[in-house]
DNA sequence: CTGAAAGCGCTTACAG
DNA sequence: CTGAAAGCGCTTACAG
């Protein structure tokens, strides 16, 4: 094996030390040290100034990384074949994987991708991870119970990214799907919509959490659940959204009183926009369209897509952090950890923006 | 202010260094350094041996702490008056607060308790925290929306422990209540019970998640929801559980076919045990009783209490860790983080243990 | 991967 | 809280 210079990866910023911090904060070197270690009583103002400078210069982050970095050098990444970049036109997968490698690179962690059977197998993944000397495994986009069970209790820590484990055998990191969907639906309700169509598909349990959130919003306002309806597409690709909507409109002879479509993914929303416009509906005046994911293409559609942004970068960061925590300070009996990160509503054109009436 | 020797708190274990690790692992000093920093290619076996030794000696943990410790010296703790130790016979509150101070102490963090109005007020809490120079706030057992909203976006990071924030404005750390309740209910179902009474109270939203989990278990097996029933006590104290059960039995003229009581808290379960025994029922043969919390008294009841253990120590650790993460490496726009930790089913006597029949 | 050695960055004790 | 100084622990380069 060639003598890869690991060290280079790890200090992209050339040696920021407490000397730099002391200069930046305008205090003595020793004062910085005392603040950082709590070894002497320092006034609140100076403390704050020092910490602020240390954070700004990236010194705190560097120090934190140095503490954790030891344990994770190689991360084994298992992605279902259907979600690998060359097989998947879904930008969510692509962006999430990109963020994950970027985060790994930032920490000097090598990423090795799993390549196995058409369907992911726990034993294969574990063997692959051991073969390359990985200290931890990240499983993405997959949460079939058999696979999760097979990975539970393995001698390597495993984090499931963007999936859920009902048995709580594995640590998981996911966007707050239910919350985000409630947020979007509530936004539509607060803008006067009552008949909202939720366009989704059954493929992933995390996507089903968005359906839960859709219902939560109605429940929270005490509105009858049947004002909202659910329309299932056969997949998550734009064309499948078009197909589902086309059938819906044909069957009902029009929009049937619906004034908004809330799509469980931007991909579906893009299909919805296309189909609705093709059928001559104006967006958002005839019907509002809201997506979920917040990936790039939504900015470029006409009209631009109102959506819920999933914090893909933070999800990647939390995932790697979780692995490092497991490796460096959590003991074996620390319970499984389920992490959800907040999503943000992004108001653009397709959702409309008439004055709030509720 | 006296010259408190902060440093002492922080190295309870007297200076474990890489020299100790190298001895423990049986390798050269330089090898340990290379492993910890990835500065040279080291074989998988040696790496593993070194890391194992470093973890065992607590060196990894020490290093990790050193990275984060800087930013948090004083933690401001806000507890609703009703849950403060002298007003509360509930061991959950007591244990959780104890674990939190223990964790803080372990990290050399000073804890200052808030003392304000009968009802917690956001502005008061923030003022109090600033007055003592705290870098972060932990709010426990309270999740009234107005309070949470008032603390959202504050210039100090706030973590809500054992509560939920539907608006996801704050970071939260809580046990996986829904999961734990499903686990317990499923255990009862798998042991042949069908008519299960869920004894709970309406006081806290986190407790209501346990009701969700109770229902999940029925739903998962495709059993009719009305086989399980919910009985509300007027509070969470043993006597209030007794009262609720007494009324129930009087009203129905007996147990009405129920073969198990699943209580949303050990406190309620203890009351249930007392009342059921007082009325002449044998536990678990006439009726099984299962609690939730896993605090000490459940081991001492007769029969001992089958329950779901909440990882109070890990919850405290995650809470402090969360604050430190916010302070040292998460930037302002890192989204709010919701953390749930897994619970564990603890099989003792009161739940029975006949052979699994399903 | 070892082991001795040089060097660096941070910590610490102290006078001001 | 400063600043100069001693010292410690870890890192690093190198010969074996």
From TrEMBL, chains A, B:
<feature type="domain" description="HTH lacI-type">
    <location>
        <begin position="16"/>
        <end position="70"/>
    </location>
</feature>
<dbReference type="GO" id="GO:0003700">
    <property type="term" value="F:DNA-binding transcription factor activity"/>
</dbReference>
<protein>
    <submittedName>
        <fullName>LacI family transcriptional regulator</fullName>
    </submittedName>
</protein>
<dbReference type="Pfam" id="PF00356">
    <property type="entry name" value="LacI"/>
</dbReference>
<dbReference type="InterPro" id="IPR010982">
    <property type="entry name" value="Lambda_DNA-bd_dom_sf"/>
</dbReference>
<dbReference type="InterPro" id="IPR028082">
    <property type="entry name" value="Peripla_BP_I"/>
</dbReference>
<dbReference type="GO" id="GO:0000976">
    <property type="term" value="F:transcription cis-regulatory region binding"/>
</dbReference>
<keyword id="KW-0804">Transcription</keyword>
<keyword id="KW-0805">Transcription regulation</keyword>
<dbReference type="InterPro" id="IPR046335">
    <property type="entry name" value="LacI/GalR-like_sensor"/>
</dbReference>
<keyword id="KW-0678">Repressor</keyword>
<dbReference type="Pfam" id="PF13377">
    <property type="entry name" value="Peripla_BP_3"/>
</dbReference>
<dbReference type="InterPro" id="IPR000843">
    <property type="entry name" value="HTH_LacI"/>
</dbReference>
<keyword id="KW-0238">DNA-binding</keyword>
């Amino acid at each position: 094996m060639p003598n890869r210079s690991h060290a280079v990866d790890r200090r992209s910023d050339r040696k920021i030390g407490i000397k730099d911090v002391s200069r930046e904060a305008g205090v003595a070197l020793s004062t910085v040290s005392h603040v950082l270690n709590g070894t002497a009583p320092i006034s609140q103002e100076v403390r704050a100034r020092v910490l602020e400078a240390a954070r700004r210069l990236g010194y705190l982050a560097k120090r934190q990384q140095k503490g954790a970095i030891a344990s994770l050098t190689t991360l084994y990444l298992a992605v279902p074949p259907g979600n690998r970049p060359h097989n998947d036109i879904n930008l969510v997968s692509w962006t999430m994987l990109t963020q994950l490698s970027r985060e790994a690179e930032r920490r000097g962690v090598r990423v090795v991708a799993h390549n196995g059977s058409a369907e992911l197998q726990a034993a294969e993944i574990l063997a692959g991870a051991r073969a390359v000397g990985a200290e931890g495994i990240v499983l993405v986009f997959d949460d079939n119970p058999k696979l999760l069970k097979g990975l539970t209790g393995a001698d390597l820590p495993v984090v499931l990214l963007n999936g859920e484990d009902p048995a709580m055998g594995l640590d998981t990191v996911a966007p707050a799907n239910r919350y985000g969907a409630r947020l979007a639906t509530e936004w539509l309700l607060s803008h006067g919509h009552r008949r909202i169509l939720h366009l989704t598909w059954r493929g992933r349990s995390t996507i089903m959490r968005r359906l839960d959130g859709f219902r939560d919003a109605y429940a929270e306002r005490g509105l009858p659940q049947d004002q909202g309806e659910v329309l299932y597409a056969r997949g998550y690709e734009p064309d499948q959204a078009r197909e589902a909507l086309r059938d819906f409109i044909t069957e009902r002879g029009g929009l049937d009183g619906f004034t908004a479509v809330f799509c469980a993914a931007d991909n579906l929303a893009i299909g919805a926009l296309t189909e609705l416009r093709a059928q001559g509906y104006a967006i958002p005046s005839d019907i509002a369209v809201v997506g979920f994911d917040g990936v790039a293409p939504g900015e470029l559609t006409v009209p631009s897509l109102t959506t819920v942004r999933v914090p893909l970068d933070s999800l990647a960061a939390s995932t790697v952090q979780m692995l490092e925590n497991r490796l460096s300070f959590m003991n074996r009996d620390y319970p499984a950890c389920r992490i959800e990160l907040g999503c943000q509503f992004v108001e653009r054109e397709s959702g409309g923006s008439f004055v709030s009436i509720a």
